[in-house]
Amino acid sequence: MEATDQLAAISKYTSQKLAGDATGHGIDHINRVVTNAKMLLAEEPSADYLITLSSAYLHDVIDDKLVSDVLSAQRNVESFLSSIEFDPDQVQTVMFIINNMSFSKSLTDDQHPLPLEGQIVQDADRLDAIGAIGITRAIYYGGHHSEKIYDPKIKPRTNMTKAEYRNLDNETIINHFYEKLLKLPDSMNTPVARKIAKGRQKTMTTFLEDFKAEWNGMK
Ligand code: ADP
Ligand code: NI
To answer: Which keywords label this protein (predicted)?
Structure first.
């Protein structure tokens, strides 16, 4: 099978798995991550195109916040990839990337360095969590999970474990910026993503300044 046909099949697989998502992890998110990954690939010619884009398409279909049975979702992706003629090494590499690239994984003791292809997809995903899109997705996600918009009495959490991070009791949308989103620009792997992230950081800090000024009736 040609790589283009394999990627078309993977795109269709992901669309089916994430159909109906109302948490900011729908196919529009996936398509933006793929677009970001293509842009980063142009700057990193040694990265494998098929591995990078397959991982970009599949990075959220095994996520524990989106599927109830992670193991079975993983088995399903593996057999799907074999069915479209990925060889065992390619399957293993894609699975390694999608299992190890998430922010929540970085809060655990079980961390493994990503290959260049994984670093690109991680940057592509993180770029979609910041800036104007990032602000919108955080509000969308927070609303879906009944978070408060803001409460100055509730302080942002620090040094969270993954379990604490996933516990949304007493979480506010504004605190999510301090707990995660504002930290992402410094965590970028590739120079181009780092540069784009700097601009998006400015968008978020301006938004937070305006938000607080308006909250306090000063604007
Ligand atoms: P990862 O998939 O890398 O582990 P997350 O699980 O944090 O990352 O989810 C990805 C996106 O979901 C975030 O970038 C953000 O837009 C949104 N999100 C996650 N947790 C929250 C939260 N508590 N409040 C608002 N938005 C959130
Ligand atoms: Ni994602």
So the answer is: Hydrolase
